[in-house]
Backbone:
């Protein structure tokens, strides 16, 4: 029987239509898919604790519930700590108008004394407009941050999905085995376990790096005498979960705060320098040693994934896209026909973005 040859442009058109359809479904199903994706990743993180409790003869349902509650308590404690710190920051910025005047005056004085240039900043800038913008930003800062946190943690379905995924994790594994019944069952189970451990290693490693960064950031800000160093250090460490963009955003907040509150004009710029040094330590030592090559995605795919994830699902999309692409890369490696796509996603060993390039 002669095989039907499908023209190349038809296959390309089919792939494009498939991509458009998937993107359309992702946009329409955001309210369901985002908590489902987050639950899938977090359930993998809580699985070892659940298995440990089951080994201690704790019933499966109770083990899943205790694992879920432990995760909720930890996340809730971090959120409460951030909220309490936000209130203190807002109170310190209450008299922001006077601080802006002082800042402009100090800038003008610096240029006059050291460079012999008079900028006339105290007269050349519409301070009322600047103050209004800053004051409105000050009033809305807690609401904006709480809104961002709420978009990630206020998803009521996420804990429910995590609970059921922990209970039915073996059932889901058997489903995948039956789905790939033409393959060796042991091999399928081994790959499922490998993917789970890969995601666990990525998330746990990321949490360790965040904890170290929180200590380093807080210590650097405390030495400089910046108030609320714990808040700014912790906030910058949390933002580090977003590759490339997170560290930059994390440094902006303490820099802006120091510009308005610090007596020295050098403090804001020292903050940028110290954060840059800490980021170099993170990217060249901490992440390669702790997180390792769990995701193994090249820089271009990572950046493209962040942009697409942010465009479709916002902050949650930027967080889940990296481990999701890593899982997709691993799945592509299982078949000879899809290995080229795995190669496209993976990091090459010899380029400037590789953490430990081979010599």
Residues:
């Amino acid at each position: 029987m002669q095989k039907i040859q499908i023209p190349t442009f038809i296959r390309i058109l089919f792939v494009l239509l498939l991509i458009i359809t998937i993107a359309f479904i992702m946009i329409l199903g955001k309210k369901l898919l985002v908590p489902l994706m987050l639950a899938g990743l977090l359930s993998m993180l809580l699985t070892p604790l659940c298995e440990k409790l089951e080994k201690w003869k704790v019933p499966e349902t109770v083990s899943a519930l205790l694992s879920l509650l432990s995760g909720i308590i930890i996340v809730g404690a971090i959120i409460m700590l951030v909220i309490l710190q936000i209130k203190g920051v807002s109170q310190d910025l209450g008299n922001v108008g006077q601080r802006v005047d002082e800042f402009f005056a100090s800038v003008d004085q610096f240029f006059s004394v050291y460079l012999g240039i008079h900028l006339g900043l105290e007269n050349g800038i519409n301070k009322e407009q600047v103050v209004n913008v800053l004051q409105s930003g000050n009033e809305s800062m807690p609401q904006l941050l709480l809104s961002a946190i709420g978009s990630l943690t206020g998803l009521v379905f996420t804990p429910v999905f995590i609970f059921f995924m922990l209970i039915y994790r073996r059932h889901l594994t058997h489903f995948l085995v039956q789905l790939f019944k033409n393959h060796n069952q042991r091999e399928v189970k081994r790959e499922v376990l490998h993917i789970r451990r890969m995601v666990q290693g990525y998330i746990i490693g990321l949490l360790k790096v965040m904890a170290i960064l929180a200590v380093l950031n807080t210590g650097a800000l405390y030495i400089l005498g910046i108030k609320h160093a714990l808040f700014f250090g912790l906030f910058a460490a949390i933002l580090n979960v977003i590759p490339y963009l997170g560290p930059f955003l994390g440094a902006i907040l303490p820099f802006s705060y120091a510009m308005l509150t610090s007596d020295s004009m050098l403090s804001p710029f020292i903050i940028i320098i110290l954060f840059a040094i800490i980021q170099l330590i993170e990217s060249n030592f901490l992440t390669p040693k702790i997180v390792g090559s769990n995701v193994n995605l090249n820089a271009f795919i990572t950046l493209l994934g962040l942009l697409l994830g942010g465009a479709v699902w916002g902050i949650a999309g930027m967080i889940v896209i990296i481990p999701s692409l890593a899982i997709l890369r691993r799945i592509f490696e299982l078949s000879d026909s899809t290995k080229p796509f795995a190669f496209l996603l993976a990091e090459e060993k010899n380029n400037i973005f590789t953490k430990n390039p081979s010599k």
Q: What stands out?
A: Residues 351-359 have pLDDT under 50 and may be disordered. The chain has 14 helices and no strands. The radius of gyration is 25 Å.
